[in-house]
Amino acid sequence: MCLFTLEKQWQQWSSLTLRTASSSSSSAFSQSSVTLSSSRNQMTHDLAPSPPSLPIIGHLHLLLSPLTHKSLQKLSTKYGPLLHIRIFNVPIILVSSASVAYEICRAHDMNISFRGLAAIDESLLFGSSGIVNAPYGDYWKLMKKLIATKLLQPQSRGIRAEELQRFYNSLVDKARKAESVEISKEMMKLVNTTLCRMSMGRSFSEENGEAEKTAQEASDPLFKKDIMSVSDRFDKLLEKILVEHNEKLEEEEYQGADMMDVLLEAYGNESSEYKITRNQIKSFFVELFVGGTDTSVQTTQWLMAEITNNPDALERLRAEIDSVVGETRLIQETDIPNLPYLQAVVKEGLRLHPPGPLLVRKFQESCEIKGFYIPEKTTLVVNAYAVMRDPDAWEDPNEFKPERFLASSKSGKKEEREQTLKYLPFGAGRRGCPGANLAYMFVGTAIGVMVQCFDWKIKGDKVSMEETFEGMNLTMVHPLDCTPVPRTKTLFL
Fold it and tell me: Can you say which residues are annotated as belonging to the binding site?
């Protein structure tokens, strides 16, 4: 393998999982144990099992695959669910089983609340000012609170309903013309425009498509030079929008209160609960659009593929929607609590196809897990893909069976908590994704509309489920392209 290919594989691994600070301490590894000293006493601590490694690169040679999560899954199948590996000088604990993930989330939640990812210079995307890399503290808690109170507030429900209607209208137009639909592209329009309107009171179309184009480019393979280029373009675009918002805030008659308004007020208010910078505002919006969009887009595409390949699940879901929503109106987000099978379908899709299959954290302090010593500052990589397909935790783990989540919804509190800590599409614990509920809402309503209102024609008998990494997300090698056919003559226009 040529040096260029090796370097590219390392860049991909870094962009997907590590980006760990270069100051990580270099360690010598053995396959069994090491002797460590403390100021109080000396003890022999057993490290977790470690596969054979090579000088300098460590275990990188075992991970040179475009599907890193599957390489790690195979590694754990051979050597165990808790492994101590090394990529160059970065020590890593790899977790691939539900039982180990459960113990870590239950007993060490605070210890792993820091992502441990190195900021990419001053980039607005994964930079030092963003929420992705922010330590678990006041700033992170503030932004999580704002997501819950501003993006999910009842006042923004009207915006989501309007954009869902536009999504439906677009599908009807395609159906009338007998044109095929690339699900990911339609979903990207829906999520991008909705997020933009909810957070800053405007749509991407008002920027002549510049914001949408930039957001799409940010989803391409995220090597450093691309990140900085996309970051610079977002910087100019957001600065323009911030200036316009600031001018409106100074107008006495202006009554706006979107998320950008709230952040600008905090930026200019010396007595606010947390003093934020202008770059933090910009970084938040960049990460909101890039992270929020990709997750919902890829999940919806995977789910439609699974539903299409499983006609029994499709018919059961359609029957539930018809019985609850009826045939005289379009499904809305307020219907979702009354649609348990739809909720189960979304959860099952995320279990099988987590958008980000590898979760990265860092142990702030040394600890013990399953009898093995974990040194402080060790990077933790949880293979969520493997955890959610662990045969010891999930019956028929590779099968699409939404009903498994209907059974779990009737379990007790203890069983429900155990289920939560082995179900990791958005992480777990205090550092779980703050936008998870919004993603569930986007995906649930979009899937609901497509199942309620249309039959779908595909090429061939089955949709290919071959997967690949695109940027930082797990997506389909062949984008789902199908043709909508209205189920009834009644259209909700």
Answer: 433
